[in-house]
Task: structure prediction
Amino acid sequence: MAETNLTKDGAQTNAFEDFRCSPFLAGGLQPQSIHFSATVYIILSITIFLGNSLILIALHKESSLHPPSKLLYRCLATTDLLVGIFSQSMMATYCMSLANDNCSLCRYASDATFITSYTFCGVSLLTMTAISVDRLLALLLGLRYRQTVTLKRTYIMVAAFWVLSSLTGLCCILNYRIALWLELSCTPSFGGGLHEIFTFFSAVHILLSITAFVTNSFIAVALHKESSLHRPSKLLYCSLATTDLLVGLVAQPLYATYWVSLVQEHWSLCRYAFDAVYIMGPALFLVSLMTMTAISVDRLLALLLGLRYKQIVTLKRTYIIVATIWILAIVSSLWAILDDRIIILHRLITIPLCLLISLASYTKIFRTLRYHQVQAEDPVQQQPSQLNVLNIAQYRKAVYSALWVQLALVVCFAPFFIVVTAIAHSNKTHSSHLVILWGIADVLVYFNSTLNPFLYCWRISEVRQAMKQTIRQALCFYILLSITAFAGNSLILVALYKESSLHPPSKLLYRCLATTDLLVGLVAQPLYATYWMSVFQEHWSRCRYARDAGYVTSYVLILVSLMTMTAISVDRLLALLLGLRYKQIVTLKRTYIIVTTFWVFNIVASLCGIFYPSIIYLYSSLVSPFCLVISFASYTKIFCTLRNHQAQVRDQQQSSQTNALNMARFRKAVDSALWVQLALVVCYAPMYTVEIVVTCTNKYSLLLVIVRKVAIILLYYNSTLNPFLYCWKISAVRQANRGNECRIMSTTNFTRGGTKTKTFEELVCSPSLIMDGLQSASVSFAAVNIFLAVTAFQVGNSLILVALHKESSLHPPSKLLLRCLATTDLLVGLVAQPLHVITLMSAVHEHWSLCDHAREASYITGVALCGVSLLTMAVISVDRLLALLLGLRYKEIVTLKRIYITIASFWVLCLVASLCIIFDQRITNLFILISVPLSLLISLASYTKIFRTLRHHQAQVQQQPSQPNALNMARYRKAVHSALWVQSVLVICYTPCPFVVFVITSSTTYSSTSVVAREIAAILIYFNSTLNPFLYCWKISEVRRAMKQTIRQALCCPWS
Result:
């Protein structure tokens, strides 16, 4: 790819395209090496040419192969032949021209090699994929294979491969000019003297923004109300209207800001606005384009499938397609943060491809309709077909409606594509004519979002009728909205106060929700009105107070409302699942505590936002999706449960049964989970403390660096410790481990999970680390980490995973959680600790680039693995609590599928949170500060509830001595003590780290002592992963015997 560098004044520096054929590059290479490379390319070219020529002749003579399959193999051999004829020859020419300082020939040969290589490699890759699909179809279709996979279709597919690959090669060699264009878009040299035209562009975008937002809002409401349209088709139109709505709401205001900043020469604002536009704009436009392509394919399927259309094109599949379209468009646009040329290349490939698919679909539709019309007019054909079932008149109308929207999109998008292509081929990087054409093309692209609603109303009668009704209702609704908000919520509060039939906790939640709505109209909106009036009157003191008060109250009330709605959804779910026990568990006191917690948390977060606005931004960005996901999951569970409610009611009407829960086994499982939880806490706490100190401090010392290293090692040690805890506390794991060989498996744990400041992390990979005399300390830390990595990976966790894999007596969801925890422990020794060792040794050898990359990778993997471990431990504690509370319903509610979903959610959440450090480290820090205390709090609450319940059960058993004691108290106490040992070790290993982080945060200067202290805290954390397997073997006799048996077999009979 071409790399273009610009100076601050917009001047272009030497690009890679110039450097690759420069005398400097030739002078830096030995002539012998260049001539040797050219000779190798020539030999390979001759070999490839002769070999593939023979292959093509053999394929031409062969007649037993299926013609489409033979065509694919001939295409593959042709690409290989062309590689030898052109690519290898051009590469040899490039090498020789480089050796002879022929720069002109060198550039031509380099460009030719680049284009042909991209083209031929792309065709080869696509052809190999087509061959694999061809073999799959031959297996699945059976006798229908030869009818479906025809020679004509294969020719079309191969031709498409060549066209796409050729376009890709051309785009890759030309898109660096477009990247240069984008770099110059916010510089004084860009379109100088065109301020009046830029102002006109800004005014047009503002006008189109308003019309696009208003019209698409009405279209979205009208589509929501319309019920006569096929639901998958309506969903596609809703997606299209949503993208047009967001264009008017977000993209066009940003574009108007960009043009205004160019006129005012606010270059910083210009760059931010331009970057935002080129992230948001391509995402929305690509969604529109791909959605229109999906609509064309939908119309084609409606014609071809006939009665099977509604069975194949379902709402669920359409939701998946729409979600995929949004994800692909957003991801491709976000790549522009790393390299602008990625989104340019994506546009140049995606736009023609979508248009080609739409063209092919509509061509096939009209050819099929013409064929159907001829059949209908032929009196000889009397047999009805599936097309006769289809209402052809209505179908033609729907096709023409979609085609009008498609044509409008093509007309609006085509100029932009042409202008971008012209920019790529232009030698004048910032010509005023190109700037004007580019602005006009962008206006046309945005105009499509305004034009679409009018096309919907013109061509779709159902939407037109719903639009008229929506406008009439909206006029009355917006007039009454402001008046009824205060009065309505006041009446609701009075009614809830008088109502006595509602369950008090549920009533309290509704009262809280109504109160927040009332306070919005009573407090927040008047404060904002005061703010704006003070701005107009220039009362700046009153303006600041009103702004801060409105800021605090708005965030408090909005977030309390969101959390209360989430609590209501969970309350309804509990009322369904708990049955008669609902009123005992969901009490008024607990609900008061929850509501008070909502208010306190949000008030504190909003007050902190006055001094540090980023806190409330990050807090709301995490809380809002979390609450929405919980509400969605709760209501999904409610509706799924109601579907089977009738059968459950019949089961509950049977005579009461004794508690079939094996209390002894349950107590043992609870103690085992608790031990692992304690071990994790002890190992993770030191690192958590160290990272807090690092965040708050401004000056570091040698001791702090050592403590941090020890904390990281202690964190990793948890991965080694857990397998021994499993063997010590879980007899089933210990028994299943007999006869197994020690296998190497991948597992994960948490590495560097704390908050960090950029200055402190730079100290770790900087020359100041060497000047402070930390070479020997770093080598020692690396040696300790290597030892702990070996023990965590090889000593215990591999055996634990094998034992859990063989063990069948454990409940599958519980076993899955234990395997997830053992996997995190194993990956600590396999991935996290080696990365940490690379960080330390690269700092010792002053390889600062490698040190920075290894440090970032260690931090990302550490946060991800630690987060998964903590969340898994919390889920294990909740799993044990549910096994105690739910009884016979435990296996119905806690299923393997739900645990898989939970674990997958943990991995995705932790990976996303850890990768956020690439963009903003504060997001990762906030995730750590929320997830760690929350996980520990959930575990503490779960185990507290377990022990209180077991104590109550023991008292009941003692009062009824005539009944057999179903609980093996001695065995249970042993299991409890085992779990407490693991949990205590985790707390001990993890506790130093948060304190070290706090000290670093409180300090005012940076020094090597901070690095040493933090490393010591890290070592303690890693040490927990090594200690866990020994605890398992010490406290769980079954695990100890299985480990001995496995080691004895490995030493004596390694081949068995």
